[in-house]
Each structure stands twice: as structure tokens, then as C-alpha cells.
Design brief:
- The protein is mainly alpha-helical.
- It has one domain.
- Helix content is 85%, strand content 0%.
- The chain is built from 2 helices and no strands.
- Helix 1 packs antiparallel against helix 2.
- The protein is rod-shaped.
Length: 115
């Protein structure tokens, strides 16, 4: 599961950066195309769509990275928590057994009049 999420995150980040690189190259090509001095080069409709696509993919990738990281940390913390709980449970039952053994010895000695 973790490798799939990491792979998805990597693919989405790569596509976001590739789309951004295409947008930058397109912008430089428009500037280098030889616009007259003082003439402003406005973005086309397609450049707006491409830019929004890059922004949305980048935001989605960042959110997906945080979700992946959080799930990995939760998994690691749960493993550690269950290990500690198992250790605590073993120690508790060991102490409970020792207590019962001591209590039986103590009661049997009282019954025999030794204490």
C-alpha cells in the first residue's frame, strides 16, 4: 500500500513539474517570438487552462504527499504501540501469577500455624 501511494505521489509530482516546464518553455517561446517593443503579450485561453492544471496538480500532489506521510507515521506508531501493549500485558500477567502464587503460600502457611 505504501509503495503504491509513494509511486502515485512521484508520478503526480513529475507530471506537475513537466506541465510547469512546458508552460515556462511556452512563455519563453512567446517572448522570443519577436513581439514589437511596447507590445504586451497576453496569455491565451489555453495558457490559463494549463496554468490552472499545474496549480491544481501541484496542490493535489502536496496534499497526497502529506496524506502518505501521515499514514506511514500512523502505521509506525501503531506497530510501536502494540509492541508496548504486548510487553505490558506479559509483565502484568507475570506479576499476577507471582502474586497468586505468593498469596497461596502465605494462606497455606497461616492455616498450618507457621506465621
Amino acid at each position: 500500500m505504501q509503495s503504491r501511494l509513494t509511486l502515485c505521489t512521484t508520478v503526480l509530482l513529475a507530471s506537475a513539474f513537466a506541465s510547469g516546464a512546458v508552460l515556462v518553455v511556452t512563455a519563453f517561446a512567446a517572448i522570443a517570438s519577436g513581439a514589437a517593443p511596447g507590445q504586451t503579450i497576453g496569455p491565451t485561453w489555453w495558457e490559463h487552462v494549463d496554468l490552472m492544471q499545474v496549480v491544481i496538480v501541484a496542490l493535489f500532489s502536496v496534499c497526497l504527499w502529506f496524506v502518505t506521510r501521515t499514514i506511514q507515521k500512523i502505521d509506525a506508531n501503531q506497530s510501536e504501540m502494540f509492541e508496548r501493549l504486548n510487553t505490558l500485558s506479559r509483565e502484568f500477567y507475570q506479576l499476577q501469577g507471582e502474586h497468586r502464587g505468593y498469596a497461596r503460600i502465605h494462606v497455606s502457611q497461616e492455616e498450618q500455624g507457621r506465621i
